[in-house]
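Please produce the structure of this protein holding 5-O-phosphono-beta-D-ribofuranosylamine.
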Amino acid sequence: MVKKRACIFISGTGTNLRSIINFSRDYNFPINISLVISNNRNAEGISFAKKFSIPNKIIDQNGERFEKIAIKELKDKKIELVCLAGFMKILTKNFIRNFDGKIINIHPSLLPKYKGLNTFERAIKKREKITGCTVHWVNEKLDDGKTIIKKRVKIESGENVEELKKKVQKEEYKAYSMAIRKIYSLN
Ligand code: GRF
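Below is the modeled complex.
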């Protein structure tokens, strides 16, 4: 199969990146990771790109400069899909329009609930029984856009943020790979 050329955007630990790298090594997985971009030079996730010799670029710059450099990199490498994975910068409308219908994101809640940060704290505080994660298309609004896959996770009573985060992240890894397969099985 001809794999699509993907770029993963990260800012931190990069465990979703690590998981996508593992899936992408499978011959039948629809994408090849052609580039990893981090907006944070201290992102631990960069080490996974290096370990697997994936081209990677640190663009530790403010909004406009970051996007200018990123857009050039994505165009030079003919990137067909951008996967935001723990990417903590909000992209501008201009950037999103440049890659319209080509950007997906993972968010640690069942959207539209708990957009933004501290999703686990907020779900526990609200005494939710169920939370989860959502992979969605990125549009011009924050944590909006059409859902591709959602995965539900039970919140046990007395569970703390770290415990819940661990459980949700385990589901995130599955959700991200399922979402990528789903996108291309529909084409
Ligand atoms: C994930 O929980 C993701 O849902 C959120 O940021 C976290 C990133 O974790 N957007 P990692 O960098 O993939 O380890």
